[in-house]
Structures are given as structure tokens and as C-alpha cells.
Amino acid sequence: MVEVALTDLAGPVPVSRPNGRLAGKICLVTGGASGIGRAAAIRMAQEGAAAVVIAGRRQAAGEAAAAALRAAGAEALFVATDVTRDAEVGRLVAATLQRFGRLDAVFNNAGFQERRAPIAEQTDAVYAQVFDTNVRALAHCLRHQIPALLAGGGGAVVNNTSVSGLRNPNPGLALYAASKAAAIALTRSAAMEYAPQGVRINAVAPGRVVTEMMLASGIADMRQVAAGLPLRRMGHPEEVAAAVCWLLSEEAGYVVGHILCTDGGFLAG
């Protein structure tokens, strides 16, 4: 694998100024200790969120992310959570309500990608890990989050899916692609069920974004992949985070069941 720097793949982080679009909101981010989730949590704080709850498995990384949120001006709480376990998701939402009294906005970001290999070489154990994290866990989250949102008079949810769920660009990642397609279908179905009750549910579908998962994906030459995108670069987690916060805000008040492709034009090409 060719070693490259972040700026070689994605260039400098574009300037996108917050405008208070989440002022006073109580927000929750699963998988919020690193990557896109951490960037989204920080952006929520910058957008004026009153509090951001971070869920994840890694205690040290989660506490560090919570400290960054406090530095950005928001109250923060890290709750160690394995979202594949329904009871732990229930405790996460309960802890949010106990601490802050309500829940307004959610970004379901936790995800898992298998080791790159043809489908005939993947095992039942790998299948279970991929679908438990990307689909079953999302169902757990919606099951507990939606009643909390309804109790507060409504709110918004954004699920993190992938362009792989719309068009599989990754040979060797069939399980990941299939799980993200399921997550997209789950997003759209839940959106239709709860829009009449004031809960807007949408998704982002990132393409090539420079995260730990992307860098560990087994791509031999990252520069070549970046150069082949319409923007001639990969994306930053902060760019996806800005899209997430827009979807969660009242500015997107008429957007329901939408899959926003933060992919640098990949699907258009």
C-alpha cells in the first residue's frame, strides 16, 4: 500500500461556517468517538447544540471527544455503549433523558466493514458482525430513540449509510454493501412511518472519505482513487458532518426519507 498524507488525498478542509442551526438542541451521536461521528459531534457543538451525547465502545476515545465538545461550548456526555446490544442502547437513551430531559436530534453513525475478500471467502461470523452493527444495531437505535423524540414533540434522525448501498464500488465488500442497502431501506421505511408524527428521518451516504475505516480498507493506491473522483480528491469527515447537521436542522424541515450522497460526485460519474 502506498503511504500518503491526509492532504494528499483530500486537500485542506474547506471552510464551512456554522450559523447556529442546532441552537439549544440535545443531540446524540453513536459511533461518536472518531471519524465522521466525532466530526459530527463537534459540528453540533459549533452549531449551538446545548448538549451532545456520544456513544461508543472505546472509553478513552469517547472521553477525549467529550472534552473536545466542551471546548467547543456544549455540554457533553460519553456513554460507553455497544449498539449491537439492545439493552445497552436502551440505557444510552435513558441516560440522555435523565441527564438532559429530552432528545431532539440523532446521528446514527456506528458501522463496521469486513476485511476485503470475495463473498465465497466470507464466514457466517463476519456476516453476523457486519449485519449486527450496520442493520440490527440501527433497528435497536430507532426503537429506543423514536419514542424519546416523540415524547419531546418530534425531532430528527440521520443515519449513516454509504454509496456502497446504492452502487457497490468496492469488490470484496459485498456484505458491507448489502448491509448498507438494508440500512437505506430501513431509513426510508421508518421515515414514512414517523413523518406524520413529527420525526424526520433521513440518511447520508458518504463516498470516499478519509477515515480510519477508509485507510484500513485495503485499497492499494489511495492517490489513484482520489484522483479518479470528479473533485479529484476524497472528502473530509467535517464535510459529511456539515451535511448531517443541515439535515438535522429546521433548514431541512421539508426533507424526509432522503439519502444525501456526500460523495464528491462519485455516483454522478
From TrEMBL:
Keyword Oxidoreductase (UniProt): yes
Gene3D superfamilies noted in UniProt: NAD(P)-binding Rossmann-like Domain
Transmembrane segments: none
EC numbers: 1.1.1.47
GO MF terms, alphabetically ordered: glucose 1-dehydrogenase [NAD(P)+] activity
Highest taxon above the source species: Bacteria
Record's keyword terms, sorted: Oxidoreductase
UniProt cross-references to Pfam families, sorted A to Z: adh_short_C2
InterPro entries to which the protein is assigned, alphabetical: KR_dom, NAD(P)-bd_dom_sf, Sc_DH/Rdtase_CS, SDR_fam
Positions of the Ketoreductase domain: 25-222
CDD domains xref list: SDR_c (cd05233)
Protein family according to the UniProt entry: Belongs to the short-chain dehydrogenases/reductases (SDR) family.
Protein name: Glucose 1-dehydrogenase
Organism: Plastoroseomonas hellenica
